[in-house]
From TrEMBL:
Residues 15-157 form the DUF6924 domain. It holds the Pfam family DUF6924. InterPro entries: DUF6924. This is DUF6924 domain-containing protein. The lineage of its organism: Bacteria, Bacillati, Actinomycetota, Actinomycetes, Kitasatosporales. It comes from the Bacteria.
Length: 158
C-alpha cells in the first residue's frame, strides 16, 4: 500500500474532496463547477478543499483514510472517482472517517455503519453532509440510509 501526501491547510468547515480519477479533465471541471455552486437553495456559499494531485490517482479507500486521519475535525471525505466522472449527475463517493476505536463498542459501531461506511451523493449533497456532520446535527448513518433508499443509491440534497 502506498503512502499518499498529507492533506494540509483544510479549513475546518471546508468539505474535503479528493480527485482519484484523471481520465477526463472536462468531467473534473464539471464536478468542480457543481461543487462550487451555492447550496441549500442557494443560501450558502460553497466551502471546499480540493485535492487535485495525480499522486492520488486510483487511490483506494484503505489508502485514503490513513492519509486524512490526522485531521481530527474531519468526519467525511468525498472522492471524485471513476464513477463520479463517468456519470451524468457526478455522484461523489462519501466515506466516513469513523473507526471502530472511536465507538463505545461493536454494537455502537454496527449501528453507525448499518448502511455501510460509504455512499454516493450529488455535488450539492457533499456540502449538506459535511456541514451537518461537522456540527453533529445528523449522523453519517442517516445520510447512508437516505442514499440506500434512493432508486440509484444516491443521496440527493433537498
Amino acid at each position: 500500500m502506498r503512502t499518499l501526501p498529507a492533506v494540509t491547510d483544510r479549513k475546518e468547515f471546508d468539505a474535503l474532496v479528493v480527485r482519484t480519477d484523471y481520465e477526463d479533465d472536462r468531467a473534473w471541471q464539471d464536478v468542480t463547477a457543481a461543487l462550487m455552486a451555492p447550496w441549500g437553495d442557494g443560501v450558502y456559499e460553497a466551502c471546499v478543499h480540493l485535492v487535485d494531485d495525480p499522486a492520488w490517482a486510483d487511490a483506494a479507500v484503505d489508502e485514503i483514510l490513513p492519509a486524512v486521519s490526522a485531521d481530527e475535525n474531519l468526519a467525511v471525505v468525498s472522492l471524485a472517482d471513476r464513477t463520479t466522472m463517468r456519470t451524468e449527475s457526478h455522484p461523489l463517493l462519501a466515506i466516513t472517517t469513523l473507526t471502530r476505536e472511536e465507538c463505545a463498542d461493536d454494537e455502537d459501531y454496527e449501528q453507525l455503519t448499518e448502511f455501510g461506511t460509504e455512499f454516493r451523493t450529488t455535488p450539492a449533497g457533499v456540502h449538506d453532509v459535511h456541514a451537518n456532520l461537522s456540527i453533529g446535527n445528523l449522523g453519517f448513518e442517516e445520510y447512508a440510509a437516505w442514499a440506500h433508499d434512493d432508486a440509484e443509491g444516491i443521496y440527493r440534497s433537498a
